[in-house]
Amino acid sequence: MSCHSIPQYSFYLFTIPAIFSLSLKNCTSVPSKLVNVSMAETDPFLPAVATWYGDPAGAGSDGGACGYGNDVRNPPFSAMVSAGNSNLFKGGKGCGACYQVICKENVDCSEVPITVTITDECPGTCGDGAPFHFDLSGTAFGALAKPGQADLFCGAGIINIGYKRVACNYPQTTVTFKIDPGSNPSYFSCVIEFENGDGDLDLVELRASGSDQWLPMKQSWGANWKIDLVPPQAIAPFSIRLTTLDSKKTLVAENVIPVDWAPGKSYRSLVNF
C-alpha cells in the first residue's frame, strides 16, 4: 500500500488552515484524554501522531538527515521509513532505530501494525504537538490503511497512532559502512547502516592495522561518523567497534575497511547485532 493519486499532505504545510482545517478536525474527533487512557490500559502501544511527506509512493526523502541516501528506497529499508521529531531523531543518535506503529481511530485504518526505521528528521512544527511525531514516507503511511483504502486514508493529513520501540531485524543483511566522498588518507568519515537490534549507535571507535588502541570517532551528523587520521593511525585495514545507544551492546567489525579503501565506496561487514 502507498498514498497513490492523492496530493501529498506533508505536515510542513499544515500552516495553510484553509486546506487542512477539516482534516485536522476529523483526526482529533476523539478526545485525546480518552485515547491516552485507552492505550495505556489495554494496549502496549503509546500515543503519538503521524503525518506523511515526499512522494505518495515514495520513501519520504532521498536519504534525509541520517545520510542513508537512496538506500532508504531499497531493501532492507524498502521505503518503510519515517522522519522523527526531536524525541525520536535525538540529534541524529536516533537514526536507525525501529518502531512499530498502528492506527485504530480512523475508519480506514487497518489496525495492523507496521515497522518503520527512523531515517530522517522532522523539524519545526513537528515538535509543537504530541511528544512523539512520526512523519512517515508515503509508502509507510499508506500501509496503515485497509486494503484499497490508502488513497482516502492519505488525505487525512494528521492522524493519531500508537507506537512502540522494537528490535530492528534485517535478515541476511550485515552492518554496512558507506565511505564519505570527502574522505582521504588524513580524514575518514562513513555512514553506518543496517544494524539489527537497537538500530541506533552511541559510540563508534576505529582501530588501525597493527594497533591495539581503539580511537573514538565523532558523530558528524545523523548516522555519519568521522575521525582525523595521522600515522600510524592511518594504516588500513581498519576495524570498527560499535556501541548501541540504550543497551550499550558492542559489536566489532574486524578489518571491515580494506587496505585499498576508496571514498564513495560501501563495505559490508561479516557481522551484525
Automatic annotation (TrEMBL):
Can you give the residue ranges of the Expansin-like CBD domain? 186-269
The organism sits in which domain of life?
Eukaryota
Grouped into one coarse class, the protein's main location is: secreted
Q: Does the keyword Secreted apply?
A: yes
What InterPro entries does the database record attribute to this sequence? Expan_Lol_pI, Expansin/allergen_DPBB_dom, Expansin_CBD, Expansin_CBD_sf, LolPI, RlpA-like_DPBB, RlpA-like_sf
- A cellular-component GO term for this protein: extracellular region
The segment(s) forming the Expansin-like EG45 domain are 63-173
* Listed PROSITE patterns: EXPANSIN_CBD, EXPANSIN_EG45
Name where it's found: Secreted
UniProt GO BP? anatomical structure morphogenesis
Report keywords, A-Z.
Secreted
The entry sums up its family as follows: Belongs to the expansin family.
The protein in question is named Expansin-b2
